[in-house]
Design a protein that fits this description.
This protein is an alpha+beta fold. It is built from 13 helices and 19 strands. It has two domains: 290 residues, Aminopeptidase (3-Layer(aba) Sandwich), CATH 3.40.630.10; 114 residues, Alpha-Beta Plaits, CATH 3.30.70.360. Strands 1-2-6-3-7-18 form a six-stranded mixed sheet, with helices on both faces. Strands 12-14-10-15 form a four-stranded antiparallel sheet, covered by helices on one side. The radius of gyration is 23 Å and the shape is globular.
Length: 461
């Protein structure tokens, strides 16, 4: 049996409808981790869907309780073939964001897989059921073709990634031997462009916080009190405006990396960001001056205001509002200390006359930044495998622009981390009308089958 035969097997799985059948079943399971009423459904996804799939492949499965109270469980599956073989840890998450059922366009439902042309619509198609489903099918194709994997395999499926992966760090810290491996190979996030296979080696961190100005107990008539009472919306707008230039260049010293390493700059200098036909038009003058678009997304920090409210936007009244609040986010790369984000912001605002702005984190934890060197042997091996399968030169990103709990695998478990994403930037991830592109899914099945075959045939030394 050969690598080519394994790839032919996975092509038939897609072409004969097996992939759509499996994904349809998984999308229908309403694993909304942000909805407390779905806690039992999270367990159902692990024990009723994932475990039978893995049992059939000869994995030993166990459910691990989450050390974070009230949070979803973990599934760990292990298949050990020999002490002399390398061990791969694979990761995926079975939870999804809320469905927002009434916001999907006519003819679509978040819980019903619907194919229209090249698009497979449904909640979790892109994030992350479709992606870890591709990897599981590729593992099965290698096993069925070769009769063995040719390596040891551990698979971790969590159910809380969409709420910040609470408990994941602790469960790995408490079970280091259980999760011991030589490499993490996983899939999440988007390709650089729909038609270009992509590898990323880490992720930017994600730090969410709020800024609030709360001045009094109620609103007061703007005709009687306008010009006499300070307006919290105006104060907060000026406070936010002090943090950046009018084109988004960040001013808070603690938010700015000291620079971009040469190896990272070399890896991203010739990349072209392409989100597909529905992608927004890029604003070339936004963000840090002097950086290319890929450098801004994959090697620099970004500050965003996600929401801003003052008064009642749905029903404005002629009153000076008592308070205003903004929900903000920092996406950050390796080279800054997130523990200094809030103290640095406090000092910055106080020095500019905004001591009344209250600051607080809006999540109990944050995802840390990680980055594997692009010249790591595992990266060179993965690049060669993807090229062999597709005939294309894959894009290699030092960091994903978004955030993932990769720090748990890189820092806690000490693993080199290689991510091969199967989505694209305009997939409507986290939004209504989420979808996966069928041609990308088919190529991804080929890629991962080839990658797992090569892991069992010629792993890096």
């Amino acid at each position: 049996m050969s690598r080519a035969q394994a790839v032919e097997r996975i092509e038939a799985y897609f072409d004969d409808g097996g992939f759509v059948e499996d994904l349809t079943r998984r999308v229908a399971i309403k694993t909304e981790s942000q909805n407390p009423e779905r806690h039992a459904v999270l367990m159902t996804y692990l024990t009723g869907e994932m475990q039978p799939t893995l049992d059939a492949m000869g994995y030993d499965c166990q459910i691990l309780d989450n050390p974070a109270p009230g949070r979803g469980p973990f599934l760990l599956a292990q298949r050990h073939e020999s002490d002399d073989l390398p061990t791969m840890l694979m990761y995926g998450h079975g939870d999804v964001v809320n469905g927002y059922d009434d916001q999907w366009r006519d003819g679509l439902s978040p819980w019903t897989l619907t194919q229209e042309g090249d698009r497979l619509y449904g909640r979790g198609t892109a994030d992350n059921k479709g992606q870890h489903g591709i990897n599981l099918a590729a593992l099965a194709a290698v096993l069925e073709t070769r009769g063995s994997m040719g390596f040891n395999s551990k698979i971790l499926i969590e159910t809380g990634e969409e709420t910040g992966s609470p408990g994941l760090r602790e469960v790995c810290e408490n079970n280091r031997d259980l999760f011991a491996a030589d490499v993490l190979i996983a899939s999440d996030g988007p390709r650089l462009s729909p038609n270009r296979p992509t590898i990323f080696l880490g992720a930017r961190g994600n730090f969410n916080f709020s800024m609030k100005v709360d001045l009094r107990d109620g609103g007061h008539h703007s005709g009687n009190w306008g010009g006499l009472l300070s307006n919290p919306g105006i104060i907060l707008a000026h406070a936010i405006a002090s943090l950046t230039s009018a084109t988004g260049e960040m001013y808070v010293p603690e938010w700015r990396p000291s620079g971009i390493p040469d190896a990272v700059r070399n890896a991203v200098h010739n990349l072209v960001i392409d989100g597909g036909e529905d992608a927004p038009e890029i604003d070339p003058d936004w963000g840090e001056p002097g950086l290319t678009g890929p450098e801004k997304v994959f090697a620099w920090n970004g500050f965003e205001v996600l929401a801003f409210t003052s008064g009642n936007p749905e029903h404005p009244v002629n009153a000076i509002p008592p308070n205003a609040v903004a929900y903000c986010q920092i996406r950050f790369t390796v080279g800054v200390d997130p523990e200094e984000f809030m103290p640095g912001l406090r000092r910055f605002l106080d020095a500019r006359g905004f001591p009344m702005v209250e600051l607080s984190m809006t999540r109990e934890s944050y995802m840390r930044a990680t980055r594997l060197s692009p010249d790591d042997p595992w990266v060179e091996w993965a690049v060669a495998s993807l090229q062999k399968t597709t005939g294309k030169e894959p894009a290699v990103l030092p960091s994903l622009g978004g955030s993932l709990p990769n720090d748990v695998f890189a820092d806690v478990l000490g693993l080199p981390t290689v991510w091969v994403p199967h989505s694209y930037a305009s997939c409507s991830q986290h939004a209504p009308n989420e979808h996966m592109l069928a041609p990308v899914a088919r190529e991804a099945l080929q890629i991962m089958t080839g990658l797992f075959w090569d892991l069992g045939d010629s792993p890096p030394h």
